[in-house]
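Lab notebook, design round three. We kept the backbone fixed and only want residue identities now. Task for the bench partner: fill in a sequence for the structure below.
Input structure tokens:
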């Protein structure tokens, strides 16, 4: 998609197919539905007509995001080393994107001069370029990415114990402010991204809020089943299946997230979410064979569905 935006011949059909395959994989991870697809749909329509600016801007929006999705996936598996590594790759993509775009906008060769250099050199070059153009957030962006990258262990995966969870948490939590500053820098270089800026930042923010907060230590273990059912499973569209969800399916999903609750506890929580003025689910069927369905689409309850 990036190469296509620069006029390097690529099949629009293959580009669109690749994007949708990736989005479909993401939807499966998120319980069958995601708000990402409607956000990118207008860009796909423009790409179909050969609009290279749309291809480039969509690439800028989502290419770091997919690295961050890997960060969250590794956190969910308690793979702390992998999470910090993907956070570092997230930063590498940010730096490469900005340097390449500076070259395109200002007819320079900053990226080519450091393309084969270490990340630290590329980051330093980016800071210099942004400061020279008087981008006020240059130092902040530099410091945030420096923190994230410093948490990666330079030694081999079997040389030392994996990073502590706290290091992974710090690394992942800094990605959102980096993403915001990154988009601000792109807008500063006169990219027409302002209209959808808040949309993608909101997507990123909600993704962070509902995933990272459930991953770590005592805080994660104290999360209630009521919270998980409403603020995670329901919010992500888990109950949006046509046939609803049985108690056993809900339990399987919770166990895949490393939570173990008695059937009676989960059943009671599902019942509470299906009754009263604040109900978000509808219970159907007969006793011992109930299914639970969305009463309202999650986007009507939450400002943004992940």
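Proposed sequence:
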């Amino acid at each position: 998609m990036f190469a296509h935006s620069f006029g390097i011949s690529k099949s629009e059909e293959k580009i669109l197919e690749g994007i949708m395959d990736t989005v479909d994989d993401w939807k499966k991870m998120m319980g069958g539905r995601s708000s990402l697809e409607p956000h990118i749909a207008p860009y796909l329509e423009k790409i179909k007509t050969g609009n290279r600016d749309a291809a480039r801007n969509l690439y800028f929006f989502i290419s770091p995001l997919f690295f961050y999705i890997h960060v969250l996936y590794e956190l969910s598996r308690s793979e702390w080393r992998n999470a910090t590594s993907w956070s570092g790759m997230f930063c590498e993509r940010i730096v490469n994107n900005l340097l390449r775009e500076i070259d395109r906008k200002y007819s320079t060769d900053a990226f080519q001069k450091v393309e084969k250099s270490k990340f630290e050199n590329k980051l330093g070059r980016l800071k210099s370029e942004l400061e020279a153009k008087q981008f006020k957030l240059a130092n902040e962006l530099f410091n945030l990415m420096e923190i994230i990258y410093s948490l990666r262990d330079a030694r081999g995966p079997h040389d030392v114990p994996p990073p502590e969870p706290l290091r992974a948490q710090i690394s992942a939590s800094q990605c959102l402010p980096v993403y915001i500053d990154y988009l601000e820098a792109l807008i500063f270089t006169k990219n027409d991204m302002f209209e959808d800026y808040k949309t993608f930042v909101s997507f990123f923010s909600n993704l962070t809020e509902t995933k990272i907060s459930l991953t770590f230590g005592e805080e994660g273990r104290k999360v209630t089943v009521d919270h998980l059912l409403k603020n995670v499973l329901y919010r992500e569209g888990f109950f949006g299946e046509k046939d609803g969800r049985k108690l056993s399916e809900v339990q399987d999903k919770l166990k895949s997230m490393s939570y173990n609750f008695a059937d009676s506890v989960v059943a009671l929580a599902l019942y509470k979410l299906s009754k009263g003025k604040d109900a978000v689910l509808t219970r159907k069927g007969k006793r011992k064979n109930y299914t639970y369905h969305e009463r309202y689409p999650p986007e009507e309850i939450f400002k943004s569905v992940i």
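Keep this in mind before ordering anything: Residues 80-106 form the longest helix (27 residues).
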